Amino acid sequence: MDHNSVGKITPQTFRFACAQAPMTLVSGHTMGPVDIVFETYGEPNADRSNAILICHALSGDHHAAGYHDPHDRRNGWWDAMIGPGKAFNTDRYWVICSNIIGGCNGSTGPCSVNPATGEPYGLDFPVVTIGDMVYAQRQLIEHLRIPRLFCIAGGSMGGFQVLEWALRYPDMVRAAICIASAPRLSAQAIAFNAVGRSAITRDPEWKEGKYGGRGPEKGLATARMVGHITYLSQIVLDAKFGRRLQSADRFSFNFASEFAIESYLNHKGSAFTRRFDANSYLYITKAMDYFDISRSYGPLKEAFERVTARCLFVSYSTDWLFTTSQTKEMVRAMLSNGQPASFVEIDSEYGHDAFLVEEEKLTRIISGFLTGADQGVTA
Q1: Is residue 71 among the annotated active site residues?
Q2: How confident is the model at residue 241, as a pLDDT?
Q3: Is residue 176 domain-shared with residue 267, that is, in the same domain?
Q4: Which of 285, 317, 341 is the last residue of a domain?
Q5: Per-residue pLDDT for 378 more than 50?
């Protein structure tokens, strides 16, 4: 047992907006009521100035640390980073993580019941953006009576949310940690998302988003397989799998999965269908595609002029989904404005997934940065 674990955690639900006073989305559509499921770790100080908001990636959720039941096979997705004495030290900070709107783990999304029909939203759920997700998070932060976040942190799509917070609500963020992220998706990344969505919508069981029961499992599994490839580096794939056959020493001369990498991806795809909703995958990847700082706020140098937070940017040497060059683009924009920005490229063989795998390296960097932010200096 991890003695530095936050222990048993009970998720909470915050509801805001209603039919008479709905939430207005970037698209102009409205929605209400809106539920946000969240967890907190540690305790607030007297003036609630020690709050840190953790933003999750595409397939993540609000359960970032601890466990819901002692028999859980796994703790929260960033458990090694959140807890007493860890990077996000719960002896010192009050840490919060919420499930994004559009998700499928309790917050309002396409699998939620549409109050107008009494049936799941399906494709009647409006398209949401990263900006909409952050707006909903702000309603939660205000509900928790937090006047200003000490820090906001996240990787990948979580990094998109960090950037949106720092740009949209600069007075609400004291420090920001953007990990393995970018000011926008590359055309290549959008292409991978498009293939994933196509796999789902071409599955006969998708039924224009009105599926019940198991739904388009084959399409969703394929989407996850494609996505998972982008999270890994060639170094890891070659070292872990190479051209090894899974369970034979000769070719089968048919189309069954026989290479170890094929079996691995099949397992990842199948496991994903047991915990994720296909329509949510469509909505979240579309939100990622739409995110573009320059389109929303102007050229990066001008956009970052509004940022008042001390920022830490972290990239990984073998991440080809969110590259170091994309991170440096943001760092240069801030430094050209004379703004406090720290940058670290971590040498890692794990690709994009490194921020979820190599927590020890990340812990040292984040701990130092948070200490510096607490003391009012740049780490």
Answers
A1: no
A2: 96
A3: no
A4: 285
A5: no
Bond before 33 cis per omega within 30 degrees: yes
Confidence of residue 249 (pLDDT cuts 50, 70, 90): confident
Which CA distances in Å does 117 have to 120, 206, 219, 280? Answer: 8, 20, 27, 19
Look at residue 148 in the predicted model and tell me its pLDDT. 98
What's the rounded Cα separation, in Å, for the pair 98 and 109?
A: 13
Identified catalytic residue from 132, 203, 277, 319 = 319
Give yes or no: 156 in active site: yes
Please tell me the distance from the alpha carbon of residue 36 to that of residue 279, in angstroms, as a whole number.
18
Q: Catalytic annotation on 3?
A: no
Instruction: Write the CATH number for 25.
Output: 3.40.50.1820
Q: How many domains does the chain have?
A: 2
Instruction: Please indicate, yes or no, whether residues 83 and 147 belong to a single structural domain of this protein.
Output: yes
pLDDT value, residue 379: 40
Using a cut of 0.85, tell me whether the model's pTM lies above it: yes
Annotated active-site residue in 56, 62, 63, 352: 352
What's at 120, amino acid-wise? P
- Of the candidates 156, 181, 280, 348, the residue annotated as catalytic is 156
